[in-house]
TrEMBL record:
Membrane topology: Multi-pass membrane protein
Cell membrane listed as a keyword: yes
Name listed for the protein in its UniProt record: MMPL family transporter
Membrane-spanning segments: 221-242, 249-268, 274-292, 313-341, 347-376, 407-427, 567-586, 593-615, 627-651, 672-694, 706-731
Keywords: Cell membrane, Membrane, Transmembrane, Transmembrane helix
Gene source species: Nocardia aurantiaca
Length: 775
């Protein structure tokens, strides 16, 4: 591979204007196709074989239309209305204001006229009348009062202030979430302005009120600004710092155009272009910087800039290709999880990573040729004084590597203990999906959640629906079976209220509505769902009755558990594929193995730190919330790819030095001397890009930004730059051991450039031939 890339690098350097023109033309063509065929991004959440699907099947068969109320992709809205402090909604003035609000709401063009909103006071009365009890003013000591009136949209069960809060569920005519316009959100909220002026508090939750957000470009701008500063320091020159930015813009632009083209045929999630631009920007800069750093070194030892460009692409370019392949595998592997939006985000993220590799090895040498002798000018004297590409320069990287070489056991022990301490809180990891409680406190969605919690209890934000299949239960036992099931479920400590059974018209099914005591993402609620499902076998054996549980709470628990169950298989697939790639790159058993084990340590530390701050709320930075359920999978996919990047960038140079005759210890020190600044610079850029997401108000964005930044920090600065070099120094030549039979079987991809050195030696004049060296 190194020979082919070497030849391409020389060609691109020499025919620079042809290559640059070809890239610009490709960008214009792909961008034109993407712009002309693009369709709106759409968020479609599907995950097959969830336990809650059993309830959906029963509802579809016996209660037509009921399951649509629990469709996560449907456009829904729930208004939460509260009376002024110390008053009730049934007070004449408040009741009139409420009715006026409902009339205006029903007149909205986006509201389904076939299902107009119902006055919650009237509906509460109706529920009580059908059961022969007065839910508004009845005797609360009646044993049936809670069971009957718990389904009322007015908070009549509230002991402190009954009748003060109500909910109004509203159906909208908008087909899907991606079709909601900002004008629709504004109209859905502003319809309550007159009621607010009359003294009522009117908040709205559901998909109609959720802003999908999007990138305002701040994180990308922060990343570019930090990248410029870092690369100026890394290269000691100003012009060279801008060249990786140019390749990044071309790579990201091409990737985004491909994604826009893909929207014409696929359901692409709205977050995809943000993720792709973040990955593409960071990787393009990292890869280009790696090649430019090697080019700078080769200029000092080659007889021409063209030769230096060819050698840089042949050696560093080979490492870039295999580093990029690990990222592509990790992202594409997200399709294994079986969640549609993760699949498409992973695939198009892999496309962005592929474009980063492509621009680095094809466009970068052309840009080297275009800038020529001006690339590393003007030099910054203070920064350029200690150049890692100068063999005679003593850098901080070399000093630190020598320190590791003197006491590798000590540095290894310190890094492992530190990561272990950071990982300790990860044993308490809890996952959930973002709900109203994860929204910023100033949003109407969060206010609606808090109002509903105050009026009905936190569990009202995620009620349970138990759908019962009675088709195999004898007709004379059905009432007994339903009563027994209801008694069993109501007895669980996590259940607050449970309605009486409502049978279907064909008498073949029934359903209960349950209100847990805790919120949708609380562990107590998940335990309640688990216990209720585990009881099914008892009723199946006794009555032939089957049932399923659905609703927001059950779906949250199912998705969280399903994603948690996928982590180990996903990690095994990705790590296995990366191990094979690293085996080809390093031709060693222990180096790929230690690379994977080191990643496990950095991930454990990342989860521990994230749990400590975001789940347990330590240091008071954010409110305590369960971590979003898809964070571990996304984090593993992204950080694993980046971790292997840093492994390849740092350790390939160590192997190159070892292959060319240095001892294992001195090869580690020399490779560290050349690679530390590049890895440090790349990691700082990535951390800056990810940390920018912490500026977002949304706690989910904050937690993801923190987790990714922490993951890169722990892996780059502790694992790759302390733990791995310590292991290489301790293992000595054994680090590079590989069975002879395996060495013969594996294809020789020659990342260290041995064949390239032989090619250059063979083509040199006879009088110049001598033992070949690279670097």
């Amino acid at each position: 591979m190194s020979v082919y890339l070497y030849r391409w690098g020389k060609f691109a350097f020499r025919r620079k204007w042809i290559v640059i023109t070809a890239w610009l033309a490709a960008l214009l063509v792909i961008g034109g196709l993407g712009g002309s065929l693009a369709k709106p991004f759409q968020d479609s959440f599907t995950m097959p074989n969830l336990p809650s699907e059993r309830a959906t099947e029963i509802l579809d068969q016996h209660f037509p239309g009921m399951s649509k109320e629990f469709d996560p992709n449907a456009v829904s809205g729930t208004y939460v209305i509260a009376a002024p402090q110390g008053q009730k909604l049934t007070d004449p003035a408040n009741a009139a204001a409420l009715q006026q609000f409902l009339t205006k709401l029903g007149d909205l063009s986006i509201v389904d006229k076939a299902a107009p909103p119902v006055n919650p006071i009237d509906l509460t009365k109706k529920i009580g009348e059908q059961a022969g009890i007065d839910c508004l003013n009845g005797d609360r000591s009646n044993p049936n009062f809670a069971a009957i009136c718990s389904s009322a949209p007015l908070n009549v069960l509230n002991k402190d202030n009954p009748g003060s809060v109500a909910t109004v569920k509203t159906k909208f005519t908008i087909a899907k979430f991606s079709d909601i316009k900002q004008a629709d959100r504004d109209a859905a909220y502003q319809v309550g302005d007159e009621a607010r002026a009359a003294g009522l508090q009117v908040e709205v939750t559901g998909s109609i009120a959720q802003d999908p957000g999007g990138s305002n470009g701040s994180s990308e701008l922060i990343g570019i600004a930090v990248a410029l500063v870092v690369m100026v320091i890394a290269f000691g020159a100003i012009v060279a710092a801008f060249v990786p930015i140019l390749t990044a813009l071309v790579g990201v632009g091409t990737a985004i155009s491909i994604i826009m083209f893909g929207t014409h045929f696929l359901t692409v999630p709205t977050f995809t272009p943000i993720l792709a631009s973040m990955i593409g920007l960071a990787l393009s800069i990292d890869y280009a910087m790696f090649i430019v750093s090697r080019y700078k070194h080769e200029l000092a030892v080659s007889n021409s800039p063209e030769e230096a460009a060819g050698t840089a692409v042949g050696t560093a370019g080979s490492a870039v290709i295999f580093a990029g392949l690990t990222v592509i595998i990790a992202l594409a592997g997200l399709s294994f999880v079986g969640v549609s939006f993760l699949t498409y985000m992973g695939i198009f993220g892999a496309v962005s990573a592929a474009m980063a590799v492509l621009v680095a090895v094809t466009l970068m040498p052309a840009l080297m040729g275009a800038f020529g002798r001006f690339l590393f000018k003007p030099k910054l004297p203070l920064v350029a004084k200690h150049d890692p590409e100068d063999e005679n320069s003593v850098t901080n990287g070399m000093r630190f590597a020598r320190l590791i070489g003197k006491a590798p056991a000590l540095t290894l022990g310190i890094s492992v203990v530190l990561l272990g301490l950071l990982a300790a809180p990860a044993v308490n990891l809890q996952l959930g999906l973002p709900g109203g409680d994860s929204m910023p406190t100033h949003t109407t969605v969060r206010k609606a959640y808090d109002l509903q919690t105050a009026g009905f209890g936190e569990g009202a934000n995620g009620t349970l629906l138990v759908a019962v299949d009675l088709s195999k239960t004898p007709a004379d036992q059905r009432t007994e079976a339903l009563d027994a099931l209801r008694s069993k479920l109501a007895a669980y400590p996590g259940m607050d209220y449970l309605t009486f059974a409502q049978q279907s018209q064909d008498k073949q099914a029934a359903m209960f509505m349950g209100v847990p005591k805790s919120g949708p993402n609380n562990q107590e609620t998940k335990d309640l769902v688990k216990n209720a499902r585990n009881a099914e076998s008892e009723f199946k054996d006794r009555y032939g009755m089957e049932y399923g549980i659905t609703g927001t709470t059950a779906i949250y628990a199912d998705v969280s558990q399903a994603l948690l169950d996928k982590i180990i298989p996903y990690l095994a697939i990705v790590a296995g594929a990366a191990f094979i790639l690293l085996l080809l790159v390093f031709r060693s058993i222990l180096v790929p193995l230690t690379a994977a084990l080191g990643f496990l340590l950095s991930m454990a530390a990342t989860f521990g730190a994230t749990v400590l701050i975001f789940q347990e709320g330590h240091f008071g930075l954010v409110e305590a919330h369960p971590l979003v359920s898809f964070l571990p999978i996304m984090l593993i996919g992204l950080v694993f790819g980046l971790a292997m990047d840093y492994q390849v960038f740092l350790v390939t140079r160590m192997r190159e030095e070892y292959v060319h005759g240095k001892s294992a210890k001195h090869a580690m020190i020399s490779g560290y001397h050349h690679g530390a600044r590049v890895v440090t610079s790349a990691a700082i850029i990535m951390i800056s890009v990810f940390s920018a997401f912490m500026l977002d108000d949304n706690v989910v964005a904050k937690s993801m930004g923190f987790a990714m930044a922490a993951g890169v920090f722990f892996d780059a600065f502790i694992v790759r730059m302390v733990l791995i070099p310590s292991l290489l120094a301790l293992l000595g030549p054994w680090a590079w051991w590989i069975p002879k039979w395996l060495d013969r079987v594996l294809p020789d991809i020659d990342v260290e450039g041995t064949k390239l050195a032989e090619l250059k030696q063979a083509s040199a004049p006879v009088e110049d031939k001598q033992p070949a060296t690279v670097g």
